[in-house]
Write a structure and sequence with these properties.
Layout lengths: L9 E7 L7 H12 L5 E7 L1 H4 L6 H17 L7 E5 L5 H10 L4 H5 L2 H9 L6 H15 L5 E3 L5 H18 L7 E3 L32 H9 L19 H14 L3 H7 L5 H28 L1 H30 L5
Parallel strand pairs: 1-2, 2-3, 4-5
Helix pairs in contact: 3-12, 4-7, 4-13, 7-8, 9-12, 10-12
């Protein structure tokens, strides 16, 4: 009989901190691309709640945001039947592996992390040890699942590179324990900039130029109305990121949500000016966000369903994570029960 060879799917893992509401940048730059991968890869996505307490959080708000983010992941197209969705704090192996990896990470390496430098400058009154060792917890998050790819934004590339260094160091002592993961960085087109400051990436820390997934249509329309275009007198819709970064940003948003190319967009708005272009972008974004917002609202009200998703997610995630953890414990010499 002919033997059927079924190829093992490659694995993918990523997380977002539930430290604020998800925005258009998170959606277009990360989650939308994750949602397209479920057929091709075995996917794990989590709420990095343990990471968020490196900065002080209101406990009730963190609890609410973690579940809200789960509802938003699903509403954005991450089907829990096809993706494993879970909360980081529900899988104790993350903290357990993190401790072991701390002992295989150098003080000098952590001192070079730019996010630590930035965040310790922003929160001078709370430069805690967790903020410093944050990348080790992130390495544990990743290595537990032996993923092939880690889809993250450019800002997280340094942390994934450190993860690779830690894994290689561990493997060189104990043999092939960890798979060495690759960062998967979205193309520049999927990098969304702030509507009021097109030089900076769209970020929840600048809420003015930031479109949140849960924003109502009138709020989205207002934010696009105030979007910076450019100060030249040309007033035409042309893709020129250096000369007209605001217009290029709006064009790339419009392109991602409608699937139209830059040439098609230029032709569509030829001779029409920004007064027509900006509301058209707003409308396309509103159309894209409407079903997501409504579905997220519906899901947030369905506590029993969300509970079943995160319970099943934690179970599936724990199964894989514990396998790696047991191997690591054995290798470093912890007495097995
Ligand atoms: P902050 O407001 O603290 O800078 P953030 O809103 O940028 O945070 P993160 O939690 O750092 O969000 O990012 C989660 C993921 O979302 C990142 O890995 C990145 O891929 C993606 N992302 C965030 N902002 C953007 C953006 N403006 N454009 C494209 N992708 C983004
Ligand atoms: N550090 C990331 C969130 C994060 C993550 C991870 C991403 C925590 N652990 C593991 C990918 C893989 C952030 O702040 N965006």
């Amino acid at each position: 009989m002919e033997e059927k060879i079924t190829e093992q799917k490659k694995r993918m893992l990523s997380g977002i901190q539930p430290s604020g509401d998800l925005h258009l940048g998170n959606y277009l730059g990360a989650i939308k691309n994750w949602a397209d991968r479920a057929l091709e890869y075995e996917c794990y996505y989590f709420m990095a709640d343990m990471h968020t307490i490196t900065v002080r959080q209101d406990p009730a708000e963190l609890r609410h945001r973690s579940i809200q983010q789960l509802a938003q992941y699903i509403a954005c197209g991450l089907d829990p039947e096809k993706n494993t969705l879970f909360l980081q704090s529900h899988v104790p192996a993350h903290a357990q592996l993190s401790w072991v990896l701390n002992c295989y990470t150098m003080y000098g390496e952590l001192s070079r992390m730019t996010q630590f430098k930035d965040k310790s400058a922003q929160h001078k009154d709370n430069i805690n040890a967790g903020l410093f060792t944050y990348p080790v917890l992130m390495a544990a998050d990743i290595l537990l699942y032996q993923p092939d790819y880690v889809p993250v934004g450019e800002d997280q590339k340094q942390h994934v590179e450190l993860t690779r260094d830690i894994a290689q160091r561990f493997n060189s002592i104990y043999g092939d324990v960890f798979k060495i993961p690759e960062p998967m960085i979205p193309k520049t087109g999927a990098r969304v900039y702030g509507l009021t400051s097109p030089g900076d990436k769209m970020s929840k820390s600048q809420p003015d130029g930031c479109v949140f997934i849960m924003d109502e249509p009138d709020v989205v329309a207002k934010k696009f109305k105030r979007a910076v275009t450019d100060s030249d007198t040309e007033h035409c819709v042309r893709f020129a990121p250096k000369e007209k970064p605001g217009v290029a940003n709006l064009m790339s948003i419009y392109s991602v949500v409608t699937g139209k190319s830059y040439d098609e967009i230029e032709a569509e708005f030829e001779g029409k000016g920004y007064g027509v272009f900006k509301p058209a972008v707003a409308e396309a974004v509103i159309d894209a966000l409407n079903p997501i917002r409504e579905e997220a609202k519906r899901l947030i009200a369905d506590k029993a369903y969300l509970e079943s998703v995160y319970e099943q997610g934690a179970q599936r995630a724990s199964y894989i994570a514990n396998k790696t953890l047991r191997k690591v414990y054995k290798k470093v010499g912890f007495y097995q029960i």
